[in-house]
Design brief:
288 residues; alpha+beta; Endonuclease, Chain A; four-stranded mixed sheet; three-stranded antiparallel sheet; 12 helices; elongated
């Protein structure tokens, strides 16, 4: 795939380009863009040709970018390309989006200039419904392109644009990023209200580093960051941790950080009930 402006930069004169078109060495796809050697091209070739047809600052975007990244399997018949707002481009079978993008929005994938996974998901959220957007976020997560927590953090540093608000609304409850210190600040008052003393934090217990530990009760609490779909390996690792604690008589409890932030009353109730049972067990042991 090559553009006329690239051939000119390589030193080809216009007549030489026309000669190669006439001899079937170059096959026009869009004005000034040619397939080399044969007219049929792959999907990647068609995407690259559409970007070249829109100029040196063009990138694949929206649903076409989502198809390139593999996060959306249905693709429109037209190719979607973004160009700087100052440019005016119209090409048949290409939908051109004129807008302002910055360097963090841009990358390459399979050598095709394209919007980043984060930027692509924002664009999708601006044109798809919530169910379709969530499906795309799930796919990006499965492909390890960006997980929901990192996506939520990226939105905090993204200027307002179509798609930011609906994507943030989708992620607000289900995921968010909270540092260990912030997590402690939110969780410790809940534990105090549940009648628990101050725990040890970030301690090694039974071979695992845990978030909160009450050695006198043998209570271990983990507060997980939430992903839409934790992988089987991650789920298995969590089970092994909990089983290792239970095997030596400890009580493992696991909350999501979203529960700590948005459902503190529920977390307090569970802690209160578990703590009451553990205190009773401890009293029985001391009395025997």
């Amino acid at each position: 795939m090559i553009a006329r402006w690239q051939l000119l930069r390589l030193g080809f004169i216009p007549s030489a380009i026309e000669h190669r078109i006439a001899r079937g060495r170059l096959h026009p796809l869009w004005r000034g863009v040619y397939a080399v050697g044969r007219p049929r091209v792959s999907r990647h070739g068609r995407w690259m040709a559409a970007v070249l047809a829109c100029g040196t600052e063009a990138v694949l975007s929206h649903e076409s970018a989502a198809a390139l990244w593999g996060i959306r399997h249905r693709e429109r018949t037209v190719v979607e390309v973004s160009v700087p707002a100052r440019l005016r481009r119209t090409r048949p079978r290409i939908q051109v989006h004129r807008r302002s993008l910055t360097a963090p929005d841009l990358t390459t994938h399979h050598n095709i200039p394209v919007t980043t996974p984060v930027c692509t998901l924002i664009d999708l959220a601006g044109c798809l419904d919530a169910v379709q957007t969530e499906r795309a976020v799930n796919e990006a997560d499965k492909l390890d392109l960006v997980d929901p927590e990192r996506l939520r953090e990226a939105l905090e540093h993204t200027d307002p644009r179509p798609g930011v608000r609906p994507l943030r609304k989708l992620l607000d409850y289900r995921t968010f990023t909270m540092t260990d210190s912030e997590n402690e600040q939110r969780f410790l008052p809940i534990a105090r209200k549940a009648g628990l003393p101050k725990p040890k934090t970030q301690q090694w217990v039974n071979g695992f580093r845990v978030d909160f530990y009450w050695p006198e009760l043998e209570l271990v609490v983990e507060t997980d960051g939430l992903r839409y779909h934790r992988t089987p390996a991650e789920q298995a690792a969590d089970l092994l941790r909990d089983q290792a604690h239970a095997a030596v008589g400890a009580q493992p409890l696991r909350f999501t950080r979203a529960q700590v932030r948005y459902e503190p009353a529920y977390v307090e109730r569970i802690l209160t009930d578990v703590a009451a049972r553990l205190y009773s067990r401890r009293s029985d042991r001391l009395a025997s």
